[in-house]
Design brief:
Elements: E1 2-5, E2 40-43, H1 52-74, H2 81-88, H3 92-98, H4 102-126, H5 131-148, H6 150-159, H7 165-183, H8 198-215, H9 222-233, H10 260-266, H11 269-272, H12 283-305, H13 312-319, H14 323-329, H15 333-358, H16 363-380, H17 382-391, H18 397-412, H19 431-448, H20 452-455, H21 459-471, H22 473-481
Antiparallel strand pairs: 1-2
Length: 488
């Protein structure tokens, strides 16, 4: 007996197009999502009239559907081939006859949803009579797909994180294609002005709003939110104001005062080890030092090898602690990851908040100060920045939840902007959330592609993009052009 998912259909062997088969209720066509066993039905046994190619196509679609469902539930690293074969009702030999490994299956599922999404957005964008209408139609098309296929869209937005270099390369190609589409309506094309971060910022904002609703099971809200996102996106002029494209600050590396994490990284193993034998350190100091070293070691390893390459023996070795000491503090490597994530996010938030408060009497300038401080932190703590901004999505749903809570805290510093809007200008309610997602996307881009040395060149643009929807392009650009302190 072969099980079949209700919304997966065999395809014609020649045309590749889906063939209509009766669904569980006797109808035809692709169905919406449901839960449990109702999502699957069995192909008839014996002579069913399907060719071998059609049977294999059906098995592939069920496995892709299983991957989509399990990633939405637990994240890619936790998905096992056993889970996939049981949910899709195929044998293990059948799985390996169709796919080399689970990464190849993920890529197959991603190619399907990402390809269809990119194509639909491009088609909708081309239907507009103006750049403004094109952007709105593209957002509506994206929202409509997310509402109909929430789990598939969750995979498209989050599923490839932590899946390996091939998935990363495919995701980057999709992002680049979307950036080119969004940039098509701007005064300068994507290729003519590659340093214009507006398209990347907008995609990050839309992704953030959509991913949050998808994870909360509120995909039905997205078609209505598409109107707000459109109004937010259209608040940006078609060209960057002058003076925001080039370098703004230079990191004075030779005179920089290293942070504690950098110092610990540069010390030899002997120097990092606490004194042996009798010493005057209190138990609390010893535990604190051990925990800090474990957190730093975890961040370093993840930045180098990703979450999949993180092992307890290597953490213990780099942190100069015994395995017993590690287990006293963290039951698993995943707990160590979450601990490092919390530390990095707390430090980033504290750094940003202190800078923001120092200029709180002038909200635009306070935001600029906070963003510059955040970028300083990211540049000075590359390992922690990589873990908290890049590797979080690939760890687990729990890590994503911690990240979302932290991002919500950052977003609170943007909410006063609603009170600073020009008279008669209505700022869409989704703006603060979307702007926070845009900031995250830009930082993620520079860290993931190992271009931190260029991040400070983007500081003026990031300030401008953050403030523009609240106070308008002229005031935002004026604030962004103000001299910022050199990095030290």
């Amino acid at each position: 007996m072969t099980a079949r998912r209700t919304n997966a259909k065999p395809r014609d062997a020649k045309s590749g197009k889906p063939k209509d088969l009766p669904d569980a209720k006797g109808g035809k066509g692709r169905g919406g999502s449901s839960s449990g066993g109702a999502r699957y039905r069995r192909l008839p046994t014996g002579a069913h009239g399907l060719t071998r190619e059609e049977v294999e196509q059906d098995q592939r679609e069920r496995l892709r559907s299983a991957m989509i469902e399990l990633i939405a539930e637990r994240g890619y690293p936790a998905v096992r081939i056993l889970d996939l074969t049981q949910l899709a009702h195929v044998s293990r030999p059948t799985f390996y006859n169709l796919y080399a490994d689970k990464e190849e299956l993920l890529l197959s599922a991603y190619e399907d949803i990402a390809g269809r999404t990119t194509l639909r957005i491009a088609e909708a964008f081309a239907e507009g009579d103006s750049p403004q209408q094109s952007l709105q139609l593209a957002l509506q098309a994206f929202a409509a797909m997310a509402a109909v296929e929430p789990e598939a869209m969750t995979l498209a937005l989050l599923g490839t994180f932590g899946a390996g270099p091939r998935a990363l390369e495919r995701r980057n190609r999709t992002t680049t294609a979307l950036e080119k589409t969004v940039s098509a309506g701007r005064a300068h094309s994507w290729s003519e002005q590659p340093r214009d971060l507006t398209a990347k910022f907008l995609i990050g904002g839309v992704r953030e709003v959509a991913a949050t609703r998808l994870r909360a099971g509120s995909a039905e809200e997205l078609p209505e939110l598409a109107r707000e996102l459109g109004a937010w996106a259209l608040s940006y002029p078609q060209a960057l104001p002058p003076g925001l494209e080039g370098p703004r600050r230079v990191r004075k590396r030779e005179s920089a005062e290293p942070t504690s994490a950098v110092l610990r990284h540069e010390r030899s193993l002997a120097e990092r080890r606490l004194p042996s034998g009798r010493h005057d350190l209190a138990r609390e100091e010893v535990v604190k030092s051990q925990r800090e070293r474990i957190v730093d070691a975890t961040a370093e390893i993840v930045a180098e090898k990703g979450f999949a390459g993180l092992t307890i023996p290597e953490i213990a070795s780099r942190a100069n602690v015994s395995h017993e000491t590690f287990y006293e503090m963290y039951p698993t490597k995943h707990d160590a990851f979450l601990g490092a994530q919390k530390v990095g996010l707390h430090q980033a938030l504290r750094t940003t908040a202190e800078a923001y408060q120092s200029a709180s009497s002038d909200w635009p300038q306070a935001v600029a100060a906070g963003l510059n401080a955040l970028m300083d932190f990211v540049c000075s703590e590359p390992s922690h920045a990589h873990l908290t901004l890049v590797d979080t999505f690939g760890a687990s749903p729990g890590a994503i939840e911690i990240r979302e809570n932290a991002l919500s805290s950052f977003t609170e510093y943007l909410r006063p902007g609603f009170d600073h809007a020009a008279s008669g200008c209505e700022v869409p309610p989704v703006t603060a959330e979307a702007v926070a997602g845009g900031i995250w996307q830009v930082l993620h881009h520079y860290i993931e592609h190992k271009r931190l040395h260029e991040l400070c060149d983007a500081s003026s643009q990031l300030v401008y993009l953050t403030l523009n929807p609240f106070i308008g392009p002229e005031r935002a650009a004026e604030t962004a052009r103000r001299p910022a302190p050199a990095l030290g």
